């Protein structure tokens, strides 16, 4: 099994028995190249050593491995694509069992209901192609092709089509889940509905999804993609561009077929937009005339697949599948939290003058709202239905992150909080897909789950009172 243990522990004996001699099934810290071949951390700035890594080939094996961990007092986290900013797929802290779901990547389509059944390790790039090849279908998701569905559809799953169709988790019809006692159950609106509520937004705290049933839409036939590059503008000039863009995305009547982001980076700023429709419909929407025009702009028309390829290329500007050292902060904005013009100038002036400590930094503002807001705040664990915008910052270093770089992003975040209309006492929270390891456990739970946290704590006490599924920021069970 790729390891040698002179005196196996009870946990090791249990894991070895599940593997039944199969090669590449379980790895231990004593194995040569354990981190490189088994753990494969995404964020190299965070060192984590799981007690073991297992690679199940079926849902039954996932359940057996969870049983091994639970009976030995070890917590568990699963990895599908492995893009957690804090390496939570590896446990987020030393000593947990990491379940690598790489083999669970199946796909099938029901041509009567147009519902797709998909394994958690299926990555978005493959799922997109499979949906097109099986009936020209689609559903909302992010655009990084290497992200696995397991984490994406249980944390939220936001992307440029979310204003039109909602979050990825809004497309989950049913799921097969391994629970804390090693049982396989189904979760839907009619079967274990409380667990179904919890896994759609807080999945890593409640179980491991081994199969999703997803509703789909007919794929758009034409997609207009817009990019304007504002190079080497000073703080005041870029702030004016941002405020013009923010006014567009703040409009509650904005055509839902439009998704957009504003990216601040060392050379200036980029505005990208995706409109799911024809050029004539794009023009008729009135959006082009409202967006900033004084940059180097391009507008192209693609089909659905080509548009996602372009989005993936844009995403690779600031964070890709490459393992590296990085740091990130984020925040969500309700309509009443959007910045006044003078505040934007102050914020961008800070960025202009700050010592960054690296040339690889990006601050991204993503539009939200639209169909995401159609779902009630308490309908799923995802609590950010009221957000019209999210910001994320990234700083990347190939070798190691300096304290200067971290301070740049931390000070940007605190400056932004102070510039909010309500000041830094305003509690607006952030999306747990942009997990922030710098937050304390209590802070993180409050910001990620907000008004849904008390309900989740009660459900945690029911479904996982011993915290078999745990990371440094997971939901805590309510006191009994």
TrEMBL record:
Keyword tags: FAD, Flavoprotein, Oxidoreductase
Which Pfam families does this entry report, sorted A to Z? BBE, FAD_binding_4
Specify the FAD-binding PCMH-type domain's residue ranges.
46-219
PROSITE patterns recorded for this chain?
A: FAD_PCMH, OX2_COVAL_FAD
Superkingdom assignment: Eukaryota
Q: Does the keyword Disulfide bond apply?
A: no
**Alphabetized InterPro entries for the sequence:** BBE (IPR012951), FAD-bd_PCMH (IPR016166), FAD-bd_PCMH-like_sf (IPR036318), FAD-bd_PCMH_sub2 (IPR016169), FAD-linked_Oxidoreductase (IPR050416), Oxid_FAD_bind_N (IPR006094), Oxy_OxRdtase_FAD_BS (IPR006093)
Q: Which family does it belong to?
A: Belongs to the oxygen-dependent FAD-linked oxidoreductase family.
PANTHER family on file: BINDING OXIDOREDUCTASE, PUTATIVE (AFU_ORTHOLOGUE AFUA_1G17690)-RELATED, OXIDASE, PUTATIVE (AFU_ORTHOLOGUE AFUA_6G14340)-RELATED
UniProt name for this protein: FAD-binding PCMH-type domain-containing protein
Species annotation: Sporothrix bragantina
């Amino acid at each position: 099994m790729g390891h040698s243990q002179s005196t196996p522990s009870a946990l090791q004996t249990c894991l070895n028995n599940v593997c039944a001699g199969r090669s590449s099934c379980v790895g231990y810290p004593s194995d040569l190249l354990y981190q490189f071949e088994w753990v494969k951390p995404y964020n190299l700035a965070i060192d984590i050593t799981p007690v073991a890594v297992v690679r199940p080939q079926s849902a039954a094996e996932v359940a057996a491995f969870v049983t091994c961990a639970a009976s030995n007092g070890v917590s568990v986290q699963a990895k599908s694509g492995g893009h957690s900013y804090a390496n939570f797929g590896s446990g987020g802290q030393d000593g947990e069992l990491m379940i690598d779901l790489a083999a669970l990547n199946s796909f099938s389509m029901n041509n009567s209901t147009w519902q797709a059944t998909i394994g958690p390790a299926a990555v978005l790039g493959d799922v997109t192609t499979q949906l097109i090849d099986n009936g020209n279908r689609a559903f909302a998701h992010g655009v990084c092709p290497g992200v696995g569905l397991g984490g994406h559809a249980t944390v939220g799953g936001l992307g440029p089509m979310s204003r039109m169709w909602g979050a990825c988790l809004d497309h989950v019809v049913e799921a097969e889940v391994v629970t804390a006692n090693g049982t396989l159950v189904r979760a839907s609106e009619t079967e274990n509905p409380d667990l179904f509520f919890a896994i759609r937004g807080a999945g890593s705290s409640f179980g491991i999804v081994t199969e999703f049933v997803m509703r789909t839409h007919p794929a758009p036939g034409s997609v207009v993609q817009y990019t304007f590059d504002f190079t080497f503008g000073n703080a005041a000039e870029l702030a004016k561009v941002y405020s013009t863009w923010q006014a567009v995305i703040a409009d509650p009547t904005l055509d839902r077929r439009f998704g957009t982001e504003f990216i601040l980076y060392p050379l200036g700023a980029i505005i990208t937009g995706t409109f799911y429709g024809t050029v004539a419909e794009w023009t008729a929407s009135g959006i082009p005339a409202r967006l900033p025009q004084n940059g180097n702009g391009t507008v192209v028309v693609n089909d659905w697949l080509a548009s996602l390829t372009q989005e993936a290329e844009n995403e690779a500007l600031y964070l890709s599948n490459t393992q590296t050292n990085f740091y990130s902060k984020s925040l969500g904005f309700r309509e009443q939290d959007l910045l006044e013009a003078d505040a934007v100038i102050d914020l961008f002036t800070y960025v202009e003058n700050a010592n960054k400590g690296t040339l690889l930094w990006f601050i991204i503002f993503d539009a939200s709202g639209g169909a995401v807001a159609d779902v009630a705040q308490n309908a799923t664990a995802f609590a950010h239905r009221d957000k019209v915008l999210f910001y994320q910052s990234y700083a990347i270093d190939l070798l190691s992150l300096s304290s200067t770089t971290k301070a740049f992003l931390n000070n940007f975040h605190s400056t932004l909080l102070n510039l909010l209309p309500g000041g830094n006492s305003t509690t607006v929270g952030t999306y747990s897909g942009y997990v922030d390891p710098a937050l304390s456990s209590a802070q993180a739970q409050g910001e990620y789950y907000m008004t849904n946290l008390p309900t989740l704590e009660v459900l945690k006490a029911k479904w996982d009172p011993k915290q078999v599924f745990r990371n440094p920021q997971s939901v805590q069970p309510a006191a009994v």
